[in-house]
Amino acid sequence: MIKTTTRPPTSGLSSTSILEVDALTKEFGGLTAVNSVTMHVPERAIVSVIGPNGAGKTTFFNMITGIYAPTRGSIKLAGRELVGMRPDQVTEAGIARTFQNIRLFSSMTSEENIMVGRTCRLKSTFVDAVLRTRRFHETEAEAREAARVMLDFVGLSKWRNEIATNLPYGDQRKLEIARALASTPKLILLDEPAAGMNPRETEDLKALIRRIRDELGVTICLIEHDMRLVMTLSEYITVLDYGTKISEGLPHQVRNDPAVMEAYLGRGAAAGEYGKEEAST
Amino acid sequence: MTVANANPPKPAVRRPLVKPDRTALLVAFFVVTSVLLLISHAPDVMRNLGPFGDVLRNKVVEALIVSLFLANVLFAYLWKAANWAKLLVGAGSLLVVLPWAGRTDTSLLDLSIQIMIFAALALGLNIVVGLAGLLDLGYVAFFAVGAYTWSIFASPRFGEVLKYYGSNPGTTGSGTLAIGLVLTAVTAGSMIFIRSLHGRIAPTRASNLSFLIAGFGLLSGIILVGRSILVLFAGSAEAVANGINPGFFWLFLALSIMTAALVGVLIGLPVLKLKGDYLAIITLGLGEVIRVLANNLSLYTAGSQGITPIGSASVPWFNGLAGALGFRPDQFYLLFLYVLVLAVIALILLVNVRLDKSRIGRAWVAIRDDEIAAQAMGVPLMQTKLIAFATGASFAGVMGMIFAAKQTFISPESFNLLQSITVLSMVVLGGMGSFSGVILGAAVVTLLNLRILPGLGEASANVSWIPQEVNPANFNRFIFGSILVAMMLLRPEGLLPNKRVARELHHEDDQEDESGDGNASGLEAGGDVYSAGFATTKEDDKTGGDR
Amino acid sequence: MELSVLLPFIVNVIIGGLVLGFVYAIIALGYTMVYGVLQLINFAHSEVFITGAVVGFEVFRVLQDSAMNGYLKLLIALLAAMVISGLLNVLIERLAYRPLRGSPRLVPLITAIGVSLILQDVLRFLEGLQGRFDLTYILPAGFGNKFCAAESTCAPVGNALRAIGVDVQLKDVILVVVSLVSLTVLNYVVNKTRMGKAIRAVSQDRVTAGLMGVDSNLMISATFLIGGALGGVSGVLFGLKFGTVNAYSGFDPGIIAFTAAVLGGIGSIPGAVLGGLLLGVIQNLIGVTNIFGNLLGLANLGTIDASYSKIGPFIVLVLILIFKPTGLLGKSNVEKV
């Protein structure tokens, strides 16, 4: 642990935190994958978690979304403790996510994928479905409407009835985001959304992420390796290395932090990428 | 009935082929097969036909005629034809011609009931395996639960049980009943309380443990209540010496559904967290456990001897109707069960279709496709899987009860592992996830099992060079095994595929060839045929991909 | 029961359980090795192993009148069973499992169940052609005698054992010795040879192993060969122990052995052995213990007999999978997200 002091969020950021992660730790056997990480995400912000490969970023996300149970620590969404909840309960509480390796439902259409994302907001029950009650028809219409709105929002309307895994790669990423948004989350976690995208697709994605925040009012937290995207998009950045938070702050603060440079350049893991970013900005 | 078309026709990648109208063909086929069926099941007529009658009497030939006849229903469903013709053929076959032929040959009614019972089982297992992707190899256990629920009460067994408790009351009395009731109420109350707590705060170790202890308390409370009720009512043993009043049939129809669903939940709770192959072997084990219990709890189940005779419902107005239609009194109960089973299966099919096109159906398929993603999207895994398990179990439960009423005899051997495998092979043959497919699978496998194999066995019994040990009648394992292997290797999506499953299994093949010839099925009539997509194999799935 | 009677009784139950446990252990190895490389429960393994038992029966039957030494007959039976079961297992993989790699997980699993059923009837058919169903082993003279009986040369050893209450047959000792030899050879092959290293590499990460120049298909075949050969050995031992087998009798020991593999930690070879031995003992103990009878109000659950000992392994399996799904010696396997 080099620096764990929390700097107050600066500039135009909201002062109320929507997500408060405190001293979060995950140990796998003897290995500490995430070591006492504290992170506060301001409401309606776009924040990033970066770090070299194996820094514990995805483990961190998995704890927030309830897939892994933390060894210690607390996670609060708008003041409500999430530790101990199942992933579906976390989603219902208001955190949606996408996956590093795209995990769409491969036998469903785009529309059906998004309708599944809406599941936790639908109130119809087993009995409603069997008896085809009015509530059932209403929720089905609601789910279909949510799918339509979300497909429009991410610009995939033309793929509505196409099998999700038949979509072009970049569109599959967008569909995953749309599916996550269908649960009307307060916070969305994007795990390497730009991975494998070409520069043009990345630009589209950047615009989309801004629109999610501006138009839908959803707070965004992303893990990303594309430094150009991170530096231009994020309002606040947390840097992990070997499971420990080594730096955080505004993009320019993080960029000039020697600890961050050492983490990337010292081991050379992402040296090229980061160096290039340095040179161009 | 367009079962698998969840969505209206849509701008497709490729337009489906326009199918020719086959109304005339359908009606002609219906007439011809109906005549064949009626002739081949009328002994009087066949006697006058000489050698041709002998051919018709052969079991294998009979099976062929029955399958041709049942193909009517399939074609009415699949072919493009006028609605009146579809209705005529569907309803005419099942409601008029079949019962009519059964009037002169009750074995046909028996066979049809069997086919529909298995079709219901296949539909139930299809929810678990085909939609939710959970391989349950102990499915027949639920069938057994339904069967025993009715059999114990509707046979002399119940009297025996009461007699036993009457002569061995132990310390049980009305006091025990009171204690049992209090215990049940208190533990059930605390379980509900803990659950509601869990809704607000995260469960802790202590709260989970207390929930478990309360569960055990509830179980013992229920046992105490049950025991004291049995003891207190032991005096009426004579009154129920031949089983309870058949009027309770309808109540038990509901009870058997609930009991089977409850057992489904109880079995599901500990095991549904497990991944695919573990789940398969553990359900196989629990299925065997239920069979062993049935074998050993001889007071209630009469052990390996089996329970007999088992009563059925008595419905006077129905008997009157059947009598007016020319059925003999000894045929009434079979005809009644035939109509009942037809109604139940229609209901089951309706429930299936409706669930499939609801958020629950989507959640099942999502879990089958990717469990982790499904949960991250807010699908409660355990609850959704339990619903699948309980729904599948309840279908088996109600059919188990009807099965017991039809057979009037059940023993633990009716519910062995091979039965579970038989139902699985129906699902696999017809197509996992496809409702019409599994019904077709059930018909084919049941005909194989009850007519074709025994028919071949009879035919070869008189051939001197075939030893009895290799009589084809005993080759059902081989046949089911071959169905499973051949389908998995050659056509994993089944004979009448569900389009979703076909998509998942053939994502790397060229689907155009597949859909062109094989699926002359209406399942795709309103839908689309999709082009090949990306591999869906997950990176973390080590079995996946020959990479 | 008095302690002086009870203690030797319990000792013998445990020793009987251990002997049984060795059979389970060797069967379990077949499951665990295949699971290690393919993550597939090879349902057909119970038939592969019963094939070994049938081959063993045939060898002893054909040689019943020969004056050959009994141990030599056993050796021939073991070798024949190993070769046939091993090749059968390779053939199954080649024809039924390999074409399905990359399919959803249910597909190969259902295929394995199908193969198992097919083999059951094929075996029954082959023996049925000669008018047989239940196959009773014709063991060489002396195999059924007490170990180191009073009149034999090693009588002092036998007497010493009997003095502390241990009473075993010669065939039990043979069974344990054969099992130990098999385990030693397997340990050598897996841990000391190039092939063993390659198999372990494939089981850890097929893709990377392939990139490193390991022919993963060949190694999977080799695994099926070894697993099948062990199945052959265990089949003969099973026949030796129980005397009678038929084409359908693979199911129960198959399930128990699979449970043993899971108990020990699936994919772990020492785990399979440990699990097998534990389950053998557990099964024997359940067989003699009245587990329900003394509980309040449950006396009418029926007689506690061998059929309850059949469900013992399932209960164990449920308990392990709920409380320690990685087994006793298995490594934890966290699914990557």
Automatic annotation (TrEMBL), chain A:
In its UniProt entry, what is this protein called? ABC transporter ATP-binding protein
GO molecular-function term, one example from the UniProt record: ATP binding
- SMART domains under this entry? AAA (SM00382)
Q: Does the keyword Cell inner membrane apply?
A: no
User: Is Transcription regulation one of the keywords UniProt gives this record?
Assistant: no
Q: Which UniProt keywords apply?
A: ATP-binding, Nucleotide-binding, Transport
Tell me which residues make up the ABC transporter domain. 19-267
UniProtKB/TrEMBL annotation, chain B:
Membrane-traversing stretches:
23-40, 60-79, 84-101, 113-132, 139-158, 178-197, 209-235, 247-269, 332-351, 386-405, 426-453
Annotated membrane topology is: Multi-pass membrane protein
Q: What InterPro entries does the annotation carry?
A: ABC_transp_permease, LivM-like
Q: Where is the composition biased (Basic and acidic residues)?
A: 537-547
Q: Establish whether keyword Transmembrane helix is in the entry.
A: yes
According to the UniProt record, where is the region Disordered?
505-547
Q: Where in the cell is it found?
A: Cell membrane
Organism superkingdom: Bacteria
Q: Keywords in UniProt for this one? A: Cell membrane, Membrane, Transmembrane, Transmembrane helix
Query: Would you tell me the protein name for this molecule?
Result: Branched-chain amino acid ABC transporter permease
Species, as recorded? Deinococcus arenicola
Q: What is the lineage of its organism?
A: Bacteria, Thermotogati, Deinococcota, Deinococci, Deinococcales
Automatic annotation (TrEMBL), chain C:
The record describes its membrane topology as: Multi-pass membrane protein
Spans traversing the lipid bilayer:
6-31, 43-64, 70-92, 104-123, 173-190, 218-240, 255-278, 285-304, 310-330
The record's listing under InterPro entries reads:
ABC_transp_permease (IPR001851), BCAA_transport_permease (IPR052157)
Q: What is its main location?
A: membrane
| Compartments reported by the entry | Cell membrane
Print the keywords alphabetically: Amino-acid transport, Cell inner membrane, Cell membrane, Membrane, Transmembrane, Transmembrane helix, Transport
Q: Does the keyword Transit peptide apply?
A: no
The family database entries (Pfam families) matched by this protein are listed as: BPD_transp_2
User: Which family is it part of?
Assistant: Belongs to the binding-protein-dependent transport system permease family. LivHM subfamily.
Protein's UniProt name: Branched-chain amino acid ABC transporter permease
Tell me which species this is from: Deinococcus arenicola
